[in-house]
Design goal:
The chain contains 16 helices and 17 strands. Helix content is 38%, strand content 18%. The longest helix has 19 residues. The protein is globular, with a radius of gyration of 22 Å. It is an alpha/beta fold. The two termini are 37 Å apart. A hairpin with a 5-residue loop joins strand 8 and strand 9. A seven-stranded mixed β-sheet has the order 4-12-11-10-7-5-6, with helices on both faces. A four-stranded mixed β-sheet has the order 1-2-3-16. The mean pLDDT is 96. Bound molecules: pyridoxal-5'-phosphate. The site of pyridoxal-5'-phosphate has 14 residues, from helix 6.
């Protein structure tokens, strides 16, 4: 009886979805194929999500890398509810609110002592990057160096999908066809490439942007150790800005609060989003230095203000969720407790690496990527991939659902990055699910 009611609900939501919605990064013909049954998620608790069909899954990619402490966390829920009683949203244009004041102070405090002393709020990762770009460009323009007109970005980078952020992107599938609309970017493959740019020496670079430690959308690709330190040095040498996109790595993902703390450097701009609100509401922030802030100071008629903003900037519910999330880090000693889980995941992944169809396994902190391969490499020959058209990664993830794991691949790289609240047993379930799904599909 209960099941048939749920099945009914699923039928309605899924059918209505197929009739009216358009999903991101999705071939909608496949989605709308009657043979495919789209997943409709209706609730969650901790690391678990529940579909309308009545099944439960471990949220193996933290709802696209946003969730930290689990779903329906009582403290975050209570903080949002309490804020809702006061006010849901007020404009940040021409007014402030207590939650935003406190959150800005706490964000600066997470990095202190550091030159990052100012916080500009926006809505999502892409807008956090847009803010950094426009601030950097306007800073140079009105402070005597208008010839600094280039941004440097790396091959395979991903910084978001709005036009500015996607101009920086280096993933051909997503970015190539928009090339003629994009602003020109100096693209480099490595630190050495970057250091050799003549535009850098000529004082034409407005900023260098990088995803610190790991390029996630590129397939969980790790940078060499020391990369950030070298980039910081290069930016100092040429007096240009270092912009760090910590939208995925921020708030503990790599085992420290921010990835830049692994190399003890600070950027001139730090972009955060995804985990900022604990994964509850769209909220982003761009942190920058007093130097940049001062570069916008002047009398009104000089028009040196930063003319930029969004209607939901510093949304009060989002700020309340973010403050509760930061409280949880302290109360639950989240980062301390995460270390044992990172080590445990590493052990489990060593076992998974034995699977005949698992190639390279890459992990940093609580982020892991595993390449699905047709044939493993050996001393004589490299691993043999499947043709990308086969969508083997997607098929493995689809099969993993049957074993209680929900995640999404990046092409043929399986991604595992559950919320920090998962327990050891759930980590085992995730890794076992991938093993069995690989057996079924490959
Ligand atoms: C997700 C992501 C973005 C874009 O953030 P949105 O909130 O999706 O706009 C940018 N950079 C990195 C590294 C990301 O992981």
């Amino acid at each position: 009886m209960a099941f048939s009611k749920q099945a009914q609900a699923n039928f309605d939501a899924a059918e209505t979805d197929r009739q009216f919605s358009w999903h991101p990064f999705t071939q909608m013909r496949d989605w709308c194929d009657p043979a495919y049954s789209p997943l409709i998620l209706e609730s969650g608790k901790g690391a678990i999500l529940r579909g309308t069909e009545g099944r439960e899954y471990i949220d193996g990619n933290s709802s696209i890398w946003t969730n930290l402490h689990g779903h329906a966390h009582p403290e975050i829920n209570a903080a949002i509810a309490a804020q809702l009683e006061r006010v849901a949203h007020v404009s940040f244009l021409g007014a402030g609110h207590p939650g935003a004041s406190e959150l800005a102070r706490r964000l600066v405090g997470l990095l202190a002592p550091s030159p990052l002393e100012r916080v500009f709020f926006s809505d999502d990762g892409s807008t956090a990057v847009e803010v950094a770009l426009k601030m950097a460009a306007q800073y140079w323009h009105q402070n005597g160096e208008p010839e600094r007109k280039y941004f440097v970005a790396f091959d395979s980078a991903y910084h978001g999908d709005t036009f500015g952020a996607s101009s920086l992107g280096g993933i051909p599938t997503f970015h190539e066809r928009f090339k003629k609309f994009h602003f020109p970017v100096l693209r480099v493959a490595s630190f050495e490439d970057c250091a050799a740019l003549p535009e850098l020496a000529a004082g034409q670079v407005a900023g260098i942007i990088i995803e610190p430690l790991v390029q996630a959308v590129a397939g969980i690709r790790l940078w060499p150790d020391g990369m950030l330190t070298k980039l910081r040095g290069l930016c100092d040498e040429h007096d240009t800005f270092l912009i760090l996109d910590e939208i995925m790595t921020g708030f503990g993902r790599t085992g420290k609060m921010f990835a830049c703390q692994h190399e003890k450097i600070t950027p001139d701009f730090l972009c955060v989003a995804k985990g900022l609100s604990g994964g509850y509401l769209p909220l982003a922030a761009t942190l920058t230095t007093q130097r940049v802030f001062d570069g916008f100071s002047g009398s009104y008629e000089e028009l040196r203000s930063f003319f930029y903003g969004h209607s939901y900037t510093a949304n009060a519910l989002g700020c309340a969720a973010a403050l509760a999330s930061l409280d949880i880090f302290e109360k639950e000693k989240t980062l301390e407790n995460l270390q044992a889980k990172i080590a445990y995941l590493e052990k489990d992944l060593e076992c998974l690496a034995e699977h005949p169809h698992v190639g390279e396994v890459r992990q940093i902190g609580f982020v892991a990527g595993m390449d699905v391969v047709k044939k493993k490499g050996d001393g004589a020959s490299p691993a043999q991939p499947y043709p990308w058209q086969k969508q083997i990664g997607a098929k493995v993830c689809e099969a993993a659902k049957e074993y209680g794991l929900l995640t999404r691949p990046i092409r043929d790289t399986l991604v595992l990055m559950p919320p920090y609240c998962v327990d050891f047993e759930q980590i085992d379930i995730c890794v076992n699910a991938l093993w069995k799904a690989l057996d079924d599909v490959c």
